[in-house]
Design a protein that fits this description.
The complex is a heterodimer of chains A (517) and B (697). Chain A is mainly alpha-helical. The two termini of chain A are 37 Å apart. Chain A is globular. The C terminus of chain A is likely disordered. Chain A contains 24 helices and two strands. In chain A, strands 1-2 form a two-stranded antiparallel ribbon. Chain A has a domain of 195 residues. Chain B is mostly helical and 697 residues long. Chain B has three domains: 552 residues, no CATH class; 36 residues; 36 residues, no CATH class. In chain B, strands 1-2 form a two-stranded antiparallel ribbon. Chain B has a two-stranded antiparallel sheet with strand order 3-4. In chain B, a hairpin with a 2-residue loop joins strand 1 and strand 2. In chain B, helix 3 runs antiparallel to helix 21 and helix 4 runs antiparallel to helix 5. Chain B is globular, with a radius of gyration of 28 Å. About 6% of the residues of chain B have low confidence. The chains are: A mainly alpha (517), B mainly alpha (697). At the A-B interface, helix 5, helix 6, helix 7, helix 13 and helix 15 of A face helix 1, strand 1, helix 5, helix 6 and helix 7 of B.
Amino acid sequence: MDGFPILSLMMAVPMAGAIACLFAGANSARWIALIATLVDLLLGIMLWANFDQAGTAAQWQFQEYAPIFGRFAWALGIDGIALMLIVLTVFLMPICIGASWQAIQKRVGEYMAAFLFMEVLMIGVFTAQDIYLFYVMFEAGLIPMYLIIGIWGGADRIYASYKFFLYTLLGSVLMLIAMMWMVHEAGTTEIPALMAYNFAPGAQTWLFLAFFASFAVKMPMWPVHTWLPDAHVQAPTAGSVILAGVLLKMGGYGFIRFSLPMFPEASAQLAWLVWGLSMVAVVYTSLVALVQSDMKKLIAYSSVAHMAIVTVGLFAFNQAGIEGAMMVMLGHGLVSGALFLCVGVIYDRLHTREISRYGGLSINMPKYAVLFLLFTMASVGLPGTSNFVGEFLSLMGIYQASSWVALVCTTGIILGAAYMLYLYRRIAYGEQVNADAAAMPDLSMREIALLAPIAAAVLWMGVYPESFLAPMRSDIRALEARLAPAAPAGDSHIKMGASKPAGGATHEEASAHGEAH
Amino acid sequence: MIQLIVLLPLLAAAIAGLGNKALGKLPAKIVTTGALFVACAMSWMIFIPFVTGQAEASVTPLFTWIESGSFDAQWALRVDTMTAVMLVVITSVSSLVHLYSWGYMDEEPDQPRFFAYLSLFTFAMLMLVTANNLLQMFFGWEGVGLASYLLIGFWFRKPSANAAAIKAFVVNRVGDLGFMMGIFGTYLVFNTISIPEILEAAPSMAGSTIGFLGHRFDTMTVLCLLLFVGAMGKSAQLGLHTWLPDAMEGPTPVSALIHAATMVTAGVFMVCRLSPMFETSPTALGFVTFIGAATCLFAATVGTVQTDIKRVIAYSTCSQLGYMFFAAGVGAYGAAMFHLFTHAFFKALLFLGAGSVIHAMHHEQDMRYYGGLRKSIPITFWTMTLGTLAITGVGIPLVGVGFAGFYSKDGILEAAFAAGGAGVGAYYVGVFAALLTSFYSWRLVFLTFFGKPRWAASEHIQHALHDAHGHDDHDTHGHGSEHDNAPAQEDAGDEPHAHGAAAHALPTGTGGYHPHESGLVMLIPLVVLSLGAVFAGFVFHDQFIGAEGGMEFWKGALAFNSHLMHAAHEVPTWVKFGPFTVMAIGLLIAWLSYIKNTDWPQRFVATFGALYQVLLNKWYFDELYHFLFVKPAFAIGRFFWKFGDVGFIDRFGPNGLAALVVQGNKITRRIQSGYLYTYALVMLIGLAAAATWAMTR
């Protein structure tokens, strides 16, 4: 694969598809979009297969470089972290197209074009090696999302899309200013070079906060999360899937690509801020999720709680935490995407998101009930599903930094179980109280084809996560090494008892362990 | 072989569950039950060499699960004496329960799902007991929790069953919070989660201190207590016990398998598996003893006044688990495992017997409507009597011959006394609880099988008679045939009956109803389990708790204390006679109250009304938790949503900003007519252009 511009090709295919869709009729647009995303999925699998994940391999692979003008360059390249997020993106895209097959009936060509264009930009975000190229992709990626919510959304779509816009605008302005300062200071726009550049500690704090403003909104972290429930509620099903599945991961990707490696000292100094907001988010949004009567809002709030686990994992400053955070991102991408699809399935039949309008669906929709149960359990973080691996590693990572943060965030497993099982009970269990809900047919072949691959991936990731952890391992190890000098010491400080001098060796090992991580 | 034992149930569950309606009832039943009987046979083949002392512990690696830095969790199947004991318990009870369910669930339209859940449960439980690291144990731990959730809520149309299922899962998750924190801490301290490595390194950490939640504590105490919180959740110990009685909403075979014989004993298994670790922390062991003794007493008191036959047995289970825990707490891990082993047989027997009674009584579960059943269902009567003799620990002290519970329970009590300190307190509590055990167990037998029939007043019986006499009415009631599985569902039996539980206030009479003995598929498991209830103690006591035999049998699989077992045999004679005496007293009181002077219960209620109410309402734990946790969670959630998100963040954030923009620029119409996204687009393009200009100049 040497020299073959596979990354550019992966962006060119959906781009060409998007242009074709604009000029095609409704039905041909659907097929063009499906084929383009499937081709991209194949390319993504080839990318994964050809990615050299040996510890000795180069960190950045499949690099491409073409100067455009000035310092601005078409510089692409991926490491294992980006690879996994790209695979997630190309995996979810054909499913999104399939989910929109019948649900979208107006302006189909434009809709499909918006989706394909979004795929281009999302791949762009994860592959960009030029900081300005990243910025353009990062911000532009939201434009198709505004359009999707604003044109094909629900009744309150205008309010939702403008709220989405207001939040993200604020953050991105600050980030852009910070980026310009950094390029000026370091004299390069290349992300790998910036990741190795040591900014002065004083400057780091301001730069960190500027990036934080943008990433915290995208994440979203409490208290800048309120755009998410509205955006999800108003977005069409496929929009919600891609929003939860991929767009929310951009914030986490930003932290892992910019904030942590570029500003390690500031990250460590301000870790308390991230921890504090995350702890609040886990408890607060989980309790809010418990009282929702709208299915999509409930899942949206649960997303905020899950993303808080990502941020504590990242700011644990150790390998387990960061790998866990990545696994939560991947797992949540699949599971929340699947949950929104599950909501979409019954929304398409009854056109309401009110939980109380359903009930007893296990009786008339048994296949649906089984898949919905699987995704519910995955969301709850049952071992054997994707989310458990990530949540466990993240929380274990943060425990090494702070037992308090770990304790508060682990309560998420109790609250998560409460709100998800309560949701499942109201939808799938009980008597069939609503005649129209009782008359709904079970999953069609198309719907099974959308959900079954995600179910398989969720179990795969839960039982053999090594496939996903291996490509990222050396990159995360490098990141851990970069963070090590600044990483905060844990609060454990094991001290051996006076009566056991023989245990001295273990003591050395144990305390070194506690501090190094 | 061990791979087959573990994976056959999973395979069977997948076939039955995914095949479901397409597969049909009979193939699903054959596949799951067949797989379990094969697994059971192979388990005994593994267990017997351990009894004869020929087998060695082994670990069969499967493949990598989670690796992250120095963290390494592999899928592997460990077989040592503890695992072997659990294997036979799990597969034996599970295969018999599968068989029993052929008869018990016969009316049920959704059988493949039921059998798939049962097999899935068995798989998860096997993964738990074969775990070689803490994480795989946690996998099994949560897996059995899932199966328990699904089976408690099997009759998912019933609101009470759904509520019980969620309660079981969420309360268990509270325990799992402790378990997870315990794993985190253990990894931090030992840098591994492999059980053998932890147990080897544990003694070297004794006496060290660790920072936890801002304070300094003894390292091993912190770790053991965190892990024990997990055990308390799964084994329904005081404080986290509230889910177990409600779990009786599940079909009775489920109660026998999951909520008596296997899953609820997982906590005991965990403490015994990690016993070298617990041995390093006297504080943690003291706590285990205290919780065990407290649960043992608490649950026994509640068991004495319940009228629902399954709830009596559920509280009895809770109480017996308390015995196992305080045995572990005083260091008699062998005795704890022995009681786990014998209890599995006689408690499964009692539950399945109760199921047979319920089956015969057309789903009536309230013992106040039973009476005089011994002639109608003799085999159920005799097997349940054997189970009662086993649980009450009938046997001849000094000679040392008796039913299963005689060996294991007396072993626990003698070891507790011999251990001294808190153990002596536990002995007295345990003896008093044994009195209550004897009372409520015989009360159950007398109310059910003796006296005059009191069936006529039962709604279930009337329903049965009504159905039998008036088939024509049936359809006019609109019971759609396939939708009406209501008769197959069991009575919640949940509501404390305000009019008092005095059984004898009810009119006597059969109402013309003729209970029938259950079929062979239900009776065979009863008979097989009675063999266990009678002989399990006699046959295996030397291996499990013998001072020398135990050393050879356990081979270091748990921290077997030979000295303690020696001392337990040497306790004063009155200590050995204690349990026997109270057993006899309990039997006598039950006989006097429910056969001789049947007005005694009413007089007791009249005299001690307040005490009776406290016991009947289970010491008001549910009410307390509802008031402390459930209601506030919803109230706070609503508050955060309405006043936090909407009333504060949105009001002063985006909405406030928008209001400013609207007033300042008078672009109201633009926002309302939907042009904002164009506006946003222009702005972003402008920003990108500005950026480009800035960097190229």
